[in-house]
């Protein structure tokens, strides 16, 4: 099977610092791949090369086997890559539907923003992703962290994301909210999306991911199937940079 994404031999330096030092990772449809490593290991920088926030110095990105050039977030979006950051870019004063369609509003035949249709579409997709979501008519500032995540995820899914990048999606969440996001991730997996998940929580990662890629000082330590390793093996990779 062809990977959905392959990032091959990626390198990127900031001044003299090799933030990414010839790293190769891949991702298959319906798979969650965790990116683990200490602060400054290069996780966010690596996925920013995929989301178009940074341009790599060298290396290649393949989407479904085809080499692609990703110079900016628009290029990434054109390849159905969507990113969900921990610090969610939601407009606090707007409701869920307005956030879901922010910058891509539905308009009626007369050229007006079609609020009714946007709310109906939001309800339709939420029924699938997070059936317990009820807060359609309040600003998202009144939503919990997990509910905000579900709005961001709904936005990505509505616009046909095939590849989802989640950078620390549960970092600011309590246990209940974290469970909600975990259920969303499981649902997206069933729908065949591929997800790169950056997290510091090794339990989360072992529970949610199929494989983990561990980075240290900009280098890839290794990639393991979670069923083949223990948490201690992974900790050894993170801390000592040693393969199990
Ligand atoms: N815009 C930038 N300019 C200069 N250096 C940067 C920039 N972004 C990242 N770096 C450096 O690149 C390295 C990797 O940083 P990165 O943010 O990718 O780490 P990370 O693994 O995501 O860490 P964390 O777990 O803390 O989020 C670090 O040494 C960091 O200081
Ligand atoms: Mg980071």
Keywords summarizing the entry:
single chain; 244 residues; alpha/beta; Rossmann fold; 2 domains; six-stranded mixed β-sheet; four-stranded antiparallel β-sheet; 8 helices; globular; binds adenosine-5'-triphosphate; binds magnesium ion
Provide a descriptive summary of the structure in words.
The chain is an alpha/beta fold and 244 residues long. The protein has 2 domains: 1-80 and 162-244, Rossmann fold; 93-159, no CATH class. Helices cover 34% and strands 26% of the residues. It has 8 helices and 10 strands. The chain has helices at residues 43-51, 73-78, 96-100, 115-129, 145-158, 175-190, 202-208, 231-240; strands at 5-14, 17-27, 32-36, 58-63, 66-68, 81-85, 163-167, 194-198, 211-216, 219-225. The strands form 2 sheets. It has a 6-stranded mixed sheet with strand order 6-7-8-3-9-10, sandwiched between helices. Strand 9 and strand 10 (219-225) form a beta hairpin. Helix 4 crosses helix 5 (145-158) and helix 5 runs parallel beside helix 6. The protein starts with a strand and ends with a helix. The structure holds adenosine-5'-triphosphate (ATP) and magnesium ion (MG). Residues 43-44 line the site of magnesium ion (MG). Adenosine-5'-triphosphate binds at residues 14, 17, 19, 37, 39-45.
CATH top level label of the largest domain: Alpha Beta
Global Rg: 18 Å
Provide the CATH superfamily of the largest domain. Answer: P-loop containing nucleotide triphosphate hydrolases
Please indicate the percent range of residues in DSSP E strands (runs of 2 or more): 25-35%
Low-pLDDT regions: none
Identify the strand order in the major beta sheet. Answer: 6-7-8-3-9-10
Cα-to-Cα separation, first versus last residue? 26 Å
């Amino acid at each position: 099977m062809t990977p959905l994404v392959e990032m091959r031999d990626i390198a990127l330096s900031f001044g003299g610092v090799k933030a990414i030092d010839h790293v190769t990772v891949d991702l298959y449809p319906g798979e969650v791949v965790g990116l683990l490593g200490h602060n400054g290991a290069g996780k966010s920088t690596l996925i920013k090369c995929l989301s178009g926030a940074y341009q790599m110095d060298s290396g290649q990105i393949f989407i479904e086997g085809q080499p692609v050039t990703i110079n900016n977030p628009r290029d990434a979006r054109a390849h159905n890559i969507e990113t969900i950051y921990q610090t969610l870019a939601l407009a606090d004063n707007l409701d869920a539907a307005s956030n879901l369609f922010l910058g891509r509003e539905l308009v009626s035949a007369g050229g007006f923003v079609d609020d009714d249709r946007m709310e109906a579409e939001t309800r339709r997709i939420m029924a699938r992703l997070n059936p317990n979501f009820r807060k359609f008519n309040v600003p998202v500032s009144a939503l919990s962290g997990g509910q905000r995540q579900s709005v961001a995820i709904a936005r990505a899914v509505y616009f046909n994301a095939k590849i989802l990048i989640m950078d620390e999606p549960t970092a600011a969440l309590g246990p209940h909210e974290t469970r909600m996001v975990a259920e969303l991730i499981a649902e997206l997996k069933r729908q065949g999306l591929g997800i790169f998940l950056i997290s510091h929580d090794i339990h989360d990662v072992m529970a949610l991911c199929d494989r983990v890629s561990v980075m240290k000082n900009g280098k890839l330590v290794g990639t393991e199937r979670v069923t083949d390793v223990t948490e201690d093996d992974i900790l050894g990779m993170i801390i000592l940079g040693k393969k199990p």
